[in-house]
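Q: Joint fold for the lines below.
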Amino acid sequence: MRNYGDRGLRELTKRFDGVDVRDIVVSSEELNELADSIGQDVRNSIDLIYDYLTSLNKQTMPKDLIIKDCGFSSGILWRPIDRVGIYVPGGLKAYPSTLLMVAIPAKTAGVSRLYVATPPRKDGGVDPAVAYIACKLGVYKVYRVGGAQIIAAMSYGTESVDKVDKIVGPGNIYVQVAKFLLQGAVSIDGVAGPTELVVIADENANPDQVCVEMEAQAEHGLTSIIALISTSDTFLNLVENCLSGSQNTFFLIKVSSVDDAITLVNDLAPEHLSLHVRDPYKLVGMVRNVGAISLGRTPSAIIDYLGPNHVLPTNGSARFRGGLSVYDFVKTVMIADGVPSKELLRAVRILARYEGFTYHSRSVEIAYGVT
Amino acid sequence: MRNYGDRGLRELTKRFDGVDVRDIVVSSEELNELADSIGQDVRNSIDLIYDYLTSLNKQTMPKDLIIKDCGFSSGILWRPIDRVGIYVPGGLKAYPSTLLMVAIPAKTAGVSRLYVATPPRKDGGVDPAVAYIACKLGVYKVYRVGGAQIIAAMSYGTESVDKVDKIVGPGNIYVQVAKFLLQGAVSIDGVAGPTELVVIADENANPDQVCVEMEAQAEHGLTSIIALISTSDTFLNLVENCLSGSQNTFFLIKVSSVDDAITLVNDLAPEHLSLHVRDPYKLVGMVRNVGAISLGRTPSAIIDYLGPNHVLPTNGSARFRGGLSVYDFVKTVMIADGVPSKELLRAVRILARYEGFTYHSRSVEIAYGVT
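A: Joint structure:
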């Protein structure tokens, strides 16, 4: 991409998507036209979810913290990332909800330039609902190019594509591998694998609800990993019968206690956990490694559309990473100002000299006139 | 490392450090003995800085946030990472301050098992101050092995070395490259390059203070990148004369306005920024991309010992990443519970069907009994 620029983007899009792309950037006229073509129902639904998610994300924004202590100030400022590229999967299907989930925390965090990249449809356009949301967000540029090629382009820049600071969002395995390999040239949110759901259910759960919740996450594809853990053989059998028509593989696991189920979940660190048990909040405190928890009759599909976010850690990465939030679009700036206490200054000088950093110690002595 | 285990660790440590390591894990007896050997002054200094940093970090801890809205709860829980490996550079020199800077936010965040890896000294031991801090922290295991080999060992596990969820801390280029390459098997804080400092000074600044501050960061090695940006030729000349004895290369840059200096800083995104100007707080608001800011006469060496942290982004990564904080040791868990409003439920069903996710929509309909 560094060598071939826009020409490379066009050639690869022709080869992989079978689409001739003239203008890589979708013009604002075309974007508005596409946006105008969506139905009133879809538009209203997007507006409602947009407002809901914006309000939710605003409440999670961290505040600058400066701690003053006897003339010395020390703290953390939060600053937004300047330029963020959002990958929205597409082509045959469309995922406006993904654009909402990624862009709203980014916009709330104060990112100054949002870019959206999405594969072209066969007619060369982009999805109208995605176009509508991009207009609503004031996205700086929309690229009608998908795949590994646009990840490379946003990492290095081309004639039409601006280099960004961070690339975020789901996508197929080529997109994810490109993100993984280009870390270093660009920051990424993480590598997104197939959907994962673990349901823990006791004998009080509703088998039809559990069954359709599992089928819903199976809808993401045949590679989805979906498991039901239960203390009840009867319940496992009921759900097994209900699922028998599906093409997906489901894992049905019998455990002797709900505690064992939680231990298993913390080891697996699945993307979604759904708790269909009598007292789910008792379990929430024991859960450490999952992307998202839905409780009681709330199905995990609610998290897919109302969040807090549906871009969640997969493949065990919930051990060390959470779902997307405003925190993915801000960073800390440390700050120090003023005169530390005499005791602290002495401690700094002693430790600096212990480490052999004479000039560190001297710079403190000269700045504060201490000896 | 996956194939050679402890034997590989011993062989590589013999080859690169010239030390025969029998017990990879430093026993608690040896650790306590080493800890007891440090002077009272160093011990008191560590205790004081330890308490100061702990108090600072506690105040930055995020709180769980659950937003209740008409029977629907949605929010973010924060959970600590289970197992964290801390790399503390060493061998010839010792960096107890690095252990403080990495371990205190980790411990404050609630990490259950902290591991410390540090290269062995020629006598096979580890630095006494590092041992003292490790005891104080209740570190789970201390490894007397450094280099790329211990990064690989903590990523995959060996007979003596436990697999961890995240590896954090500075180190030489081999350690950093190992961290970079092992991402995926393990989470990392980022890749740490040579120290960087940009000083912005106007004609009111004290040239001796600026000079010794630049010399202090030069102490990290000949690869340190240190620049002075000033609107005053006279000031640049004064500092140039003062620095003339140093072996390091310093960049002295004349700009026509302080605004130009800030633009340059945001483009460079340096690790440290030191503001020696009349009204530094006026500039703080304009600074977006730096790891840490020290103001007025506060030298950047203060940040190295009193923080908030000295593990800071280098090589331009301040564009998208901040210095180490409790946020590096916690992760979000999204949570949803209850019944969203009728309007939101309708919006979810419409958007799910627009995206072709029939079962997502059905799971919502069955869970809430809506049609």
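Q: Anything notable?
A: Chain A has 14 helices and 13 strands. The radius of gyration of chain A is 25 Å.
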